[in-house]
Amino acid sequence: MYAVGLNHHHSSTIGYWVAVAALSIMLALASLPLLAGTAGAAGNQANWRGLNPASSPAARENASAAFNPTTGNIVLFGGQNADGVLLNDTYVWNGSTWKRLNPSVDPAARENASMAFNPTTGNIVLFGGQDADGKLLNDTYVWNGTNWNRLNPSVDPTARENATMAFNPTTGNIVLFGGQDADGTLLSRTYIWTVPVQ
Question: Is the residue at 34 inside a domain?
């Protein structure tokens, strides 16, 4: 059984990053809903539709988001607003409107962070990004539905922004790949986020 111990500041032995030299991922595409409609079939084509929710986050770019299938909500964090200010606010999208949340712990304001849902623990994992001073980060947080909790894994990927992160249901791990370091170098290292059996 997987268990996650959470507190309001730092946690230990919650999980850890493991660097791997090569990666072969099989995505269970058959379990995903078919997004594209049949070409040429009237009324059966995928399309964009503008919405007018009662509440919305402020305009921004480079925010991070992940879908939580347990709650049916999308969680959005941070980004950069129209004035160039980095944000550390948390919103959820319930399918019809946005709601701003007020957790007791917030990650530092940032943009270009990586986020993915981990169904093993039911948490969303956030990693890295760039802070308001232009410093690249390598911290790991989890969102448990009500609060952010910073973790202290024994291994951290190097600081980076714009890394790609997704859950691999075949192995039960979150996979992080690439990104850009402080020198502007594009990275090719692969890490997996592993939660220990308790």
Answer: no
